[in-house]
Automatic annotation (TrEMBL), chain A:
SUPFAM superfamilies to which the protein is assigned, alphabetical: FAD-binding/transporter-associated domain-like, FAD-linked oxidases, C-terminal domain
FAD-binding PCMH-type domain segment(s): 118-354
Keywords carried by this UniProt record: FAD, Flavoprotein, Mitochondrion, Oxidoreductase, Transit peptide
The protein's name: D-lactate dehydrogenase (cytochrome)
From TrEMBL, chain B:
The name this protein goes by in its record: Electron transfer flavoprotein subunit beta
Primary location recorded for the protein, binned into one broad class: mitochondrion
GO annotations of cellular component type: mitochondrial matrix
Biological function: The electron transfer flavoprotein serves as a specific electron acceptor for several dehydrogenases, including five acyl-CoA dehydrogenases, glutaryl-CoA and sarcosine dehydrogenase. It transfers the electrons to the main mitochondrial respiratory chain via ETF-ubiquinone oxidoreductase (ETF dehydrogenase).
GO annotation, biological process: carboxylic acid catabolic process
Subunit structure: Heterodimer of an alpha and a beta subunit.
């Protein structure tokens, strides 16, 4: 086999293994990553003939991704839909206007987020517009079928993963299905058509594929009444769309993860961003939400399709009041549940007024540890900061490099406003980016002065610059704004070989108490250097949360990739040892499940499993994430 | 400066000449007409049974026309660049009583005062009843009534009618120097405005010299990114003065004819949604694709 052929073969094998039972550690092949270079296109044409020889190993997801790249290829073989044969037709006949797609490109795009986790597509994508449609879909997800070959009743379960903007970085959107049938004994009352007797029935649970429920039709944005500091939005609204709609109200939604994520997705993963140090994460900004719970009843074979009893509950959690002590905190339970407990359809989020006076400031430190200590001191002294981000030298180098090569900077240079800024390369030192905002000029200047004196006098910061006008502030923060893409561009292609992309990048995420932040951050940066991988580190320093961006390219050796994942493993073990968390904002997905026992003990994990079983007894919702059942 | 001096006038008198002529204003006044339209992010709904009134406006989110927002932003930037205390940015809008909210947004962005020419509820602003000719005549009257307006900044077009006519019509009525589709505006010390315009052939730079009439500039998308008004500024804007005058009274005051202003020069014949896109056809291979394209006569 040629090298390229072998790579394809390995890629297919790897993807087949991608089930709930095995946790993929290193992507063995990057064959499923999107490709941009023209050379790839021509190479694939030659490979079409070779691939037909390996038809026995065809796996839908691999071919779907490659087909998406090169349109000159033959049409992909019909994907084997794992759903029950009447599943989609029943839903469609009940809701003729409902859009359902089995198009291989749609399936592939709904099988992955923006991370290195390869695509595991669903068998269909459904685009509901109302809560009732979702309930009807759910009522079919757990059905008894008549099977003469089987003694016990057979129950077919279809899994569901809700899809927002597809910006997950921990593999949440991967359809990971249990491969084996289960034999269970359940009370007869769980069947919709039960005879009232107090008996148990043995059933065989068969998994019949999964669907993606795309929430992009849930675009409602409520009105902000006079004096309201909240707004109700549909789960499919993205945070930038929301803030654009709020542009004349003087209020903004202040949770700002790097991606333009959907509000529903942000609730699901407990997202946060640079403004968290002042305004909090999603947990602090969700006041109320509406969710559809997964089905608990089995639709008997003699019941009507979409039987009312089989339709799951809608829950309204929370209140628009700022404080509440009324009952169990269901909003907190669903926030961060990563689509494993239900589908959020609507959310009421907190809004904050935009201040008049904003000052941005930047300064450099001699080493990363000192910089992190300075941040800890600023927080200990209670100086209000609205953003405080720390970049290491490699990150600054990435920025300087992005300024040099003009083609790359065209791609990074998305906003036209940034084009007018005259950006200068920065000193290769760990750099702190701060933002202060207050209701009066005097207050904001006092905050700035206090922080400046700590940085410069106590921690020997150099080159402390500040600005209050919009353009200069943007220029000062340019290195931080462009960080993600300029880091990936550190390993850019050179015409012949492909460069790194977000789909080939490992983005770490961990959070520690501020008292340990300096030590852990520098230990990680040291580890990166010692293991010889390219990995700019940066942190939402005010929260003790930091990330390491490690781009990989197709031509990387197994050893290099091993070291990249080793950096992440070392980092997380270090972090948990000091009482931190294996994920500050990205979520657990399936890659970080194994750390939860160390963090919470077996009792904690068991409690989470009990909660999951209670809300989702059939493991319909996003199986294989957070906990295994 | 010396070029503006008439020949033969003694130098000590030339200073008085400059101060009294409109060519050199110490304080700058910018008039910004703004329009309230359906918000750009809203999907337009068309009711085909309503004839020319097919576009549904009831219970639909309305905002300032995006190009007008850009004009307001530019006016405020010019004022901030000049840094004189008495410069004024005046926002003027013609429409129903909810237009006052749109004017308040302009005030929150930094305009100093507003003029609201209020129309009756049934008068539609989106090209049905109020059309550019009528608006331009009204604005001419406002400019003359305001006196000593240095610049009228408008959006290049509104997103409901897409006419792009009000600015040029106004310039014509005022016999004013104009530059449309501005991508950059700067004010020189002698009161002239230098405008960069983007055209298909390249960028054109035009200098609008001070004259008896204000300069008229219409703003294009790339001119600036309008600021989001902050909450304190929104609160302050509630106290800024807005003169409200009914359309009928304004017309009378300006000596115009109401019918002339309201009578549409163009009649909307039909309003319909574009036909829905037909679903594409999936083909098996490139050869089949080429075959089909050839069959449709799209490739040779």
């Amino acid at each position: 086999m040629s090298t390229s052929c072998r790579r394809m073969f390995l890629g297919q094998r790897f993807l087949r293994e991608n089930s709930a039972t095995s946790i993929p550690t290193f992507p063995k092949s990057f064959a499923s990553f999107p490709v941009f270079a023209n050379t790839e296109h021509r190479r694939r044409q030659k490979e079409t003939r070779l691939r037909s020889l390996h038809s026995s190993f065809r796996h839908q997801s691999f071919h779907v991704s490659s087909a998406a790249r090169t349109r000159t290829q033959d049409k992909t073989p019909s994907t084997q839909c794992r759903l029950p044969s009447d599943f989609l037709s029943t839903i469609q006949s009940r809701h003729p206007e409902l859009k359902i797609s089995t198009n291989p490109y749609d399936l592939d795009s709904h099988g992955h987020g923006e991370s290195y986790h390869p695509s595991s597509p669903p068998d269909a994508v459904i685009y509901p517009s109302s809560v009732e449609q979702i309930r009807d879909i759910f009522s079919l997800c757990c059905r008894e079928v008549l099977d003469d070959d089987c003694d016990s009743a057979v129950v077919e379960v279809v899994s569901v993963i809700p899809y927002g903007a597809g910006t997950s970085v921990e593999g949440h959107l991967n359809m990971l299905l249990p491969t084996e049938d289960e034999i269970l004994k359940v009370p007869s009352s769980m069947f919709t058509g039960h005879d009232g007797s107090d008996t148990y029935r043995t059933i065989k649970v068969r998994r019949r594929g999964g669907i993606s429920i795309d929430m992009s039709n849930f675009q409602q944005i409520g009105d902000v009444g006079a004096g309201d500091l909240f707004v109700k939005v549909g789960a499919g609204v993205t945070r930038n769309t929301l803030n654009e709609a709020l542009r004349h109200t003087g209020l903004q939604f202040m949770v700002d993860p790097g991606a333009d994520a959907s509000i529903g997705g942000m609730v699901a993963c407990g997202a946060s961003g640079t403004a968290a140090v002042k305004y909090g994460t999603m947990r602090e900004n969700v006041l109320a939400l509406t969710a559809v719970l997964p089905p608990t009843k089995i639709l008997s074979s003699d019941s009507d399709a979409c039987h009312d009893v089989a339709k799951p509950e809608i829950v309204h959690c929370g209140t628009t009041a700022l404080k509440s002590s009324a009952g169990y905190n269901l909003t907190a339970l669903l926030t961060g549940s990563e689509g494993t407990l239900g589908i959020v359809t609507e959310c009421t989020v907190k809004l904050h007024p935009i201040h008049n006076n904003v000052i941005a400031a930047v300064c450099a430190f001699d080493d990363l540890h000192t910089a992190a200590e300075a941040v800890t001191m600023i927080r200990m002294m209670g100086i209000p900061v609205s953003r405080i981000e720390l970049l290491d030298e490699v990150s600054v180098q990435a920025f300087n490099k992005s300024l040099q090569s003009t083609e790359k900077s065209e791609a990074i240079n998305q906003k036209q406003t940034e084009a007018k800024l005259h950006l200068q390369p920065m000193e290769l030192k760990p750099t702190l980016f701060m933002e202060f905002s207050a209701h009066s000029e005097k207050a904001v200047l006092e905050d700035l002065t206090a922080a400046q004196s700590i940085c410069v006098a106590d921690f020997n910061a150099t080159n402390f610059v500040s600005a209050s006008d919009d353009e200069t502030r943007q220029a000062l923060w340019a290195a931080r704004h462009r960080l993600y893409y300029s880091s990936i561009a550190l390993r850019s292609g050179d015409g012949e070989r492909e460069g790194a992309t977000p789909r080939s990048t490992l983005l770490t995420d961990a959070c520690v108490p501020l008292s340990h932040f300096a030590d852990i951050l520098s230990a990680t940066a040291r580890d990166v250097k010692e293991l010889g991988v390219i990995g700019p580190c940066f942190g939402h320093a005010g929260d003790g949360n930091f990330h390491c961006i490690m781009p990989m390219v197709e031509s990387d050796t197994e050893d290099y990739r091993k070291r990249v994942f080793q950096v992440n493993e070392n980092l997380i073990q270090r972090v948990i040892s000091v009482g931190g968390t294996c994920t500050g904002e990205h979520g657990v997905g399936y890659g970080k499940k194994r750390y939860l026992e160390r963090m919470y003990g077996s009792g904690g994990v068991q409690l989470m499993t009990s909660v999951k079983k209670a809300l989702d007894p059939w493991n319909v919702m996003n199986p294989g994430k957070i906990v295994d059942v | 400066m010396s070029r503006n001096q008439p020949i033969g006038v003694p130098s000590h008198q030339s200073i008085a000449y400059h101060l009294s002529s409109q060519q050199y204003n110490k304080t700058m006044k910018i008039l910004v007409p703004i329009k309230r339209v359906i918000d750009y992010a809203i999907k337009i709904r068309v009711d085909p049974t309503k004839g020319p009134h097919a576009v549904q406006q009831a219970n639909v989110k309305m905002s300032m026309n995006p190009f007008c927002e850009i004009a307001v932003e530019e006016a405020i930037r010019l004022k901030e660049a000049k840094k004189s205390k008495d410069d004024e940015v005046v926002a003027v809008s013609i429409g129903p009583k909810q237009c006052s909210e749109t004017i308040r947004t302009a005030l929150a962005m930094g305009a100093d005062r507003g003029i609201h020419i209020e129309t009756k509820g049934d008068v539609r602003g989106d090209y049905i009843d109020l059309q550019p000719w009528g608006i331009a005549n009204l604005l001419k009257g406002v400019v003359e009534k305001e006196d000593k307006v240095d610049l009228v900044l408008l959006g290049k077009q509104s997103i409901d009618s897409d006419c792009g006519q009000t600015g040029p019509l106004l310039a014509g009525l005022l016999n004013a120097p104009q530059a449309t589709f501005a991508a950059k505006v700067t004010r020189e010390d002698d009161g002239s405005f230098v405008v960069d315009r983007e055209t298909d052939a390249g960028t054109e730079t035009i200098k609008l010299k001070p004259s008896n009439a204000p300069a008229v500039i219409t703003c294009d998308l790339r001119l600036n990114t309008p600021r989001y008004p902050t909450m304190p500024n929104i609160m302050k804007a509630k106290k800024k003065p807005v003169q409200v005058i009914s359309l009928e009274d304004m017309v009378k005051e300006l000596g115009l004819n109401l019918d002339d202003v309201l009578k549409p020069r163009n009649q909307v014949v039909e309003v319909y949604e574009p036909p829905p896109r037909k679903e594409g056809e999936m083909v098996e291979s490139v050869d089949v694709l080429i075959g089909k394209l050839k069959g449709k006569g799209l490739v040779g």
